[in-house]
Amino acid sequence: MILGIDIGGTTSKLGLVQDGKVIARARFATTGHADVHAFADALAREATQMIRAHHEASIQAIGIGAPNANQLTGIIEMAPNLPWKHDVPLARMMSDRMGVPATLGNDANAAALGEWRYGVGKGIDDLLVVTLGTGVGSGFIVNGKLVLGSAGNAGELGHTILIPGGRDCTCGRKGCLEAYVSIRGMIATYSEAGGAEQALDVKTIADRANTGDAAAKECFRRTTEWLAIGLANAVCATGPKAHRALRRYRAQR
Ligand SMILES: [Zn+2]
Description:
The protein is of the alpha+beta class and 253 residues long.
């Protein structure tokens, strides 16, 4: 049995996994702890409780997905969306507290590994997984291996340049894909397209597009085009078996 932990900006999620199936789940507030050590203590308590509730079961290992996490070092590196603005060696901290090996990875890489082993990418050794939300995350499986690069930070589609000198990105550069096709990016695009009132989330823009709002429709048109450019570039670089994955995904829906 494995303990899986997903560290999010406001909520973290825990899951007990047996033979690739999640058999128990729990949610846990990421914010409101005195410091990262207090957070890790509370997280370990929550996990222990969940494990005990399952017939005195024990876990063999811990896998953690987090923003800005580096699998090669086990460190969350100054994640802008997390409460701790410094490096956090969370893999070692959780391993020390729970007494089993722990590994840590970028959340989009963890999503790619999950889809590859158990999800829509099962059996496909060349796969690209993109997560769209607050940011744009991505994980590349090439020749049956997760691409980490020499420093553990490869495969960041969201921070490839879409428009040179374009919008400011959270990474400090300008014109990244993430600055255009993330939630924040879509809200900015809606304004630029002449949206009458400011939209605070993407659902509002979608609702307005469905009722014929021209700026909202234009926002979706531009976003789709930008995302397509980003994905097409990624396909050129790595050659995933995209069509097969897409069909499988549709079949499952
Ligand atoms: Zn960027």
